[in-house]
Amino acid sequence: MNTEALMQSVTLTIVGMLVVFIFMCLLTVFLKLFIIVAFRLLPDRETAKAASVAVDFGKGGSEDEKVVAAIAAALAAGGENTK
Amino acid sequence: MLHEILLFFIDGFLAVGWQQYVMYLIGIILIWLAVAKDYEPMLLLPIGFGAILVNLPYEVVWQHGEIAGVLKYLFDAGILTEIFPLLIFIGVGAMIDFGPLFQRPWVMLFGAAAHLGVFVTIIVAIMMGFDLKEAASIGIIGAADGPTSIYVTTRFAKHLMGPITVVAYSYMALVPIIQPPVVRLLTSKKERMIHMQAHDRNFPKVVSITFPIIVTILASFLVPMAAPLIGFLMFGNLIRESGVLEKLSNTAQNELSNLVTLLLGITVGASMRAGDFLQYKTLLIMGLGLIAFIVDTAGGVLFAKFINIFLKTKINPMIGACGISAFPMSSRVIQKMAFKDDPSNIILMHAVSANVSGQIASVVVGGLVLALVPILLM
Lengths: 83, 378
Prior knowledge:
The complex is a heterodimer. By secondary structure, chain A is mainly alpha-helical. Chain A is 70% helix and 0% strand. Chain A is built from three helices and no strands. Chain A has helices spanning 3-41, 53-57, 64-77. The radius of gyration of chain A is 21 Å and the shape is flat. The two termini of chain A are 34 Å apart. Residues 47-63 of chain A have low confidence and may be disordered. By secondary structure, chain B is mostly helical. Helices cover 73% and strands 1% of the residues of chain B. Chain B has a two-stranded antiparallel sheet. In chain B, a hairpin with a 2-residue loop joins strand 1 (63-64) and strand 2. The longest helix of chain B has 31 residues, at 280-310. At the A-B interface, helix 1, helix 2 and helix 3 of A face helix 5, helix 6, helix 7, helix 8 and helix 9 of B.
């Protein structure tokens, strides 16, 4: 076993995971702040259509049973990964 | 004369050895998996047929004497130049709806945690005797992202392109088989039954339009090597979200994506020449790919459990497993598991959010690996 390569791979793991977490944290903070600002600055906001199936399913409330049935149907439908 | 005519007709049969026949069998198995089992048919069928084509007598479709064959031209033009995976990213970007992510940005952390498998696999691959560039290409299988795997392998280990691509797409199709046992092993039934509230609301359209631009800039500043990957992905998404390029968005999602996938599949299949594919390393790559997916899943779930230590209102740790890039299969699998333990438990919205974040994380991880490996080798 190549000890030098092993040390390099451990370094890669530590630095790699750290940078990915930092990036995702930055993106999370940015998105959170941006959404707050966007809601405040756009009182007559043009809302984006809730295009995803998941979001439509998320309404819940009194129609819970219908939602569960719809999700069950979507799960049964299958489909491919996008990539 | 008769002897020469006879030789002419049996020449093709004499030109191949047992290795080529094994590759025909592998090609047929891949086609069977695509047709009969519906495992990533858009990729595995062309790859399977490409594997047969390239192992035909004299490998005419690859190279015959001095003349390059059609598949070699496609390989050089589409894979070596990295154009095929990047074009696919435009289509993928146009297919992604980041809406669920805007509802709960904090799930993006699962996208990071569920890529632990990439790096752990690199370490294991080094222990098995691969060099760092080969190990990095193998580890990227854990990104659960075909185009990123191809992109990284093109740069680091072209000779492993065939096995890595086949393994990456095969395991992506096997997510429903790989993830549930790992999740069950790491969670109790009580944890799997945790309900999560979802009060989704509409958000200003400017958010969805600005998001791809900001992500591109942020990712490229932090990891410059990720710029082509994230740039093309987010370009596709911007076309979709702009709302003024519906025709282009549809073209990216359908015609462009389908056409490039078709060419990509058969070209990747053409990299499966018997001499390159039938090696001990291929078996190792299959095992390492599995490790990558298992550790990814475990990383996401364990991170969710870790977060739960600090939370008053606990989250369902299963959604951590959705931080991989296999979208939407992973979120579907996790919702099915939630239903199994409690038919009234709906965590799909959170699962989809984590799954979408995994698509961003996979590209960033790909760029990171591309950037860090050469630095470490200096």
